Structures are given as C-alpha cells and as structure tokens.
Amino acid sequence: xxxxxxxxxxxxxxxxxxxxxxxxxxxxxxxxxxxxxxxxxxxxxxxxxxxxxxxxxxxxxxxxxxxxxxxxxxxxxxxxxxxxxxxxxxxxxxxxxxxxxxxxxxxxxxxxxxxxxxxxxxxxxxxxxxxxxxxxxxxxxxxxxxxxxxxxxxxxxxxxxxxxxxxxxxxxxxxxxxxxxxxxxxxxxxxxxxxxxxxxxxxxxxxxxxxxxxxxxxxxxxxxxxxxxxxxxxxxxxxxxxxxxxxxxxxxxxxxxxxxxxxxxxxxxxxxxxxxxxxxxxxxxxxxxxx
Amino acid sequence: xxxxxxxxxxxxxxxxxxxxxxxxxxxxxxxxxxxxxxxxxxxxxxxxxxxxxxxxxxxxxxxxxxxxxxxxxxxxxxxxxxxxxxxxxxxxxxxxxxxxxxxxxxxxxxxxxxxxxxxxxxxxxxxxxxxxxxxxxxxxxxxxxxxxxxxxxxxxxxxxxxxxxxxxxxxxxxxxxxxxxxxxxxxxxxxxxxxxxxxxxxxxxxxxxxxxxxxxxxxxxxxxxxxxxxxxxxxxxxxxxxxxxxxxxxxxxxxxxxxxxxxxxxxxxxxxxxxxxxxxxxxxxxxxxxxxxxx
Lengths: 291, 295
Description:
The complex is a heterodimer of chains A (291) and B (295).
Chain A: H1 4-10, H2 15-49, H3 54-59, H4 69-79, H5 82-113, H6 119-129, H7 135-147, H8 154-162, H9 165-178, H10 181-189, H11 194-223, H12 226-231, H13 240-250, H14 255-290
Chain B: H1 2-7, H2 11-37, E1 40-41, E2 49-50, H3 54-60, H4 63-94, H5 102-114, H6 117-127, H7 134-141, H8 155-183, H9 187-195, H10 200-211, H11 213-227, H12 232-237, H13 251-261, H14 265-294
Antiparallel strand pairs in B: 1-2
C-alpha cells in the first residue's frame, strides 16, 4: 500500500477518480440505508399501530404514536391472558435452554476428551441428525406423548428439544480449541471424579461460549410455533406465538388488540437483540464457518 | 499416567449417554413410528390399520399435494434467489473497512431473522389488510393508487408476499454467513488484484464469488431444507387457511391440515416422508451440480 500512494500523487487527474468514487459512495449508502429502512418499518408500524384505536387504524395511514395503548391493553386483558402466554414462553424457552446446554456440554465434553470406541462414528451420526427435518418426527412424537398421557404438557416440548445436535457441535468446537488435556489430567491427579471434574472445572470454563449459544437457543425456542400448536390443547399452556395466532382467529377485526399482541411477542426479542446483538451475530458466524 | 488416562476413556459413554437416550426416545423412535404410521390408516384414537403403500399411492394422485408442493417451490425459489444474491453484495460492501456504520447495518439487516416468524406473518397480514391495512392507506393517501387493492384475494400476490417475508427474514442471515466466509479469504489476493488495477466489480466476480463457492453451496442446501418446511409465516398470514383457494398453502401446512385438523395421521405421515425424499433428492442434485462445474 505504501508503495502505491506516492505514484498516485504524481497523476495529474488524481482528484477526478476520487470525486467519481464519492458519487458511487452516495449510491452505496442509499442502497444500504434503503435496506435498513425496509428492515425497521414493519416493527415501527407495529409499535405505532398498537397505540391506536380500531377506528383510527381502519380509517387512515398512521405514523405517529396514539393515545389508546392502555385501552387496547385493557381490551386484550379482558379477552386473553397474555402474561400467562408470556410466562409459558419464558418457562419453555428457559428450561429448554438450560437443559439442552447442559446436555450439550456433557456430550461435547464426552466426544472431545474421551477416545472411546465408536467416538467418530457416533459424532458423525449426531451431525447427520441435523439434516433431518423436524416435521418427520411430529406425528410420531404426537403418538408417543399421547401414549404416555403427556400431550398438553410442557414436557412434550421441552424433552425432545433437550437433545440439540447443533449445541453439541458448537460446544465441542470450543472445547477442542480452548481446553487443554492438562487441566483434566491435573484434576484427576488431585483425585476428583470424572463428573466432578466436569461440573466444577470444565463447566465454568465453558461459560462464555455457552452463554452466547444460550441466547440463540432461547430465541429459537421462544419462536417455536408448530410444536406447541400441535402438542398443546389448553389455552393456559400456549406460548406467545400460538396465543397470538389464536387471537387472530377469535378477534380478527380487533386491530389494535392484534397489533398489541404481536408487539408483546416481538418486543422482548428487540430488547434481547439490542443488548446481545454482537454475541448473537458472532455465534451465527462461528457456527456457519465451522459447519 | 498414560495407562491411567487410557482407562478413563470408557467414561465418555456416560457423558454422551443422556443425549443419545433422549435422541433415541424423542427423535429416532418418533421418526420410525411416523414411518410405520405412514403405512396405516390412523385417526389418532383407534388402533392403526395397516394399508401397505396405499397412502403413498394416494399422495401420488393427490392434486392438492402437487399444488401445495408447487406453491412451496415457487415461494422458496422467488425468495431464495434474491436472498442469496443481494446478501452476497451486501456482505461484500460491509466487508470494506471504509464503510461507516458497518456494525449497525449488519445488526439491522440481521434482526428480522430472529423475530418470531408466526408473529411476523400476522403483522404482515395486518399491514396488507384490504380495508384497514396500513399499506393500502398509504398508497391511496399518497395518490399512487385510487382504490385499495385486495391483496389477499389474489393468488400470486399472496405467494409473493410469503416470498417477501422469507426474503426479509433470511437475507441478513445469509449476509452474516457470507461475511464469515469473506473473513477466510486471504487479503493478499484482493490486494494483489487491486495493484494490478482490478476494479471492485472484477474482484467481486473473479475472486469473491469463486472463493465463496463452498459457502454458497452450504447456503443453497440449508435453504432447501428450510424452504421445504415453510409453515409459520403463511399459516398466520392466512389464519391457517392458505387462502385464496390454497394458493399460499405450503406442503407443511397441508401436512398439518391433513394430520392434525382432519386426523388422517397415516396420510399425513406419508406426505412427510414424500417431502423428506424430495429434500434429499434436491440436496444431492445441488451438490452434484456444483461439483460438476468445478471439474
């Protein structure tokens, strides 16, 4: 680079390509900002419209906040228990995350640090399960849980999600890269059992990697729609996405309420993303490259 | 010391056991059970009645299966082509150090990907509503159209809307994956090309795209697997109907209707396995096509 600059200065028309470049730059920023606006507008409208009455929404285009947010909320509260849905989503996503991360870490550690027979083959089989679409198991899962009388229970959603192959893969990459065998050896020399070594020494080291993955698992579970739609029957068990879809079926003309319901299911994700966007995007990138 | 650590290796089975027990119980067993159900008629209550290949033969003669499959293919194709190209251009731009606000653009583009798909479908349904939707109000009030358009009554509009939602949700995700791939390209390659006088366009076409080929293939295959499973967005967009006249009904919506609305579980399972076979065929096909070009 250093070698080029003095040569460029000698060119008499050096300023010209620079100006042409800046026209290109303007176009480029218009392109970038245009896409950014497309990404934001639906969510902006969602927030604005949830603060207007049905009459306002039905009559004209709105782009400024209104005064009917509370009226929409009390209308909603009279018809459905949205916070129950919120807590259901929170409980399901939370338990799924904790369980699938702990089992993921156990499995990843087992594959990374123990050279047992069939290690490679079993790990390959585990990776292959990622390619199988979830709908294939849906009818079988339905039958299985109906046999056990576990349909319409949180377990029907949480248990199958506990074996998450992607989480195993992701954590194994981290262990391979940053946990040397010496740590485990020295713990063994100190007389710690294998599971104690895992829980007290390995797990704390995995913390940062696992927390990034945790955000991702949580959002994935929060957004899950088809599973709960099929396996839950009682409204009191519905997580937010299913509850919101149900509201659409019952109160399709109640626009303010619908916008507010959508907003309540999306705003938590906006908040989580605002705080953790770096970790979330970084996690996607790492997962993709390693894959 | 060495002998001791060798003896510990069988402990590995204890560590991986919980995962495989859960997977066998709630992953593999249900899949095999679905396969068994696909050879039976089962209403969800009585004992399944064995019908051999009957369900599969019925799927092959089912015009709705073909219609919903073609819907899915169309919706997927129209969304995936701009998704994989626009995101590549955006990744190329946002990989340049001189672009201001790169991280903000990345975050904003990625955000729609993590939004609840079912809620987004409903949101779009509200915005595109005939009488009360924000879009029609905006278009009428700004004088672009005279009368509100009944978007939801038009088969092609509805398919395109679903495609647009998918594009909206996935272009930022594709961009992040491309960006990760771009980090892996040796910067001395592009620097050498720049010194030789190559323009950005040349670098993009002759260095970036060929170097990213494995990642493009990865994205095509994952998008096939994902694309055949489109469900949440068209479901809430149309309140589960796939209206008008099943024009925006996808294969999985049809599977859901057959199995869980009409309680024809055997037929639903057969549809699921037909789709799985189609996904495998498409994945193999795209893999072969991309590798042949290389040779």
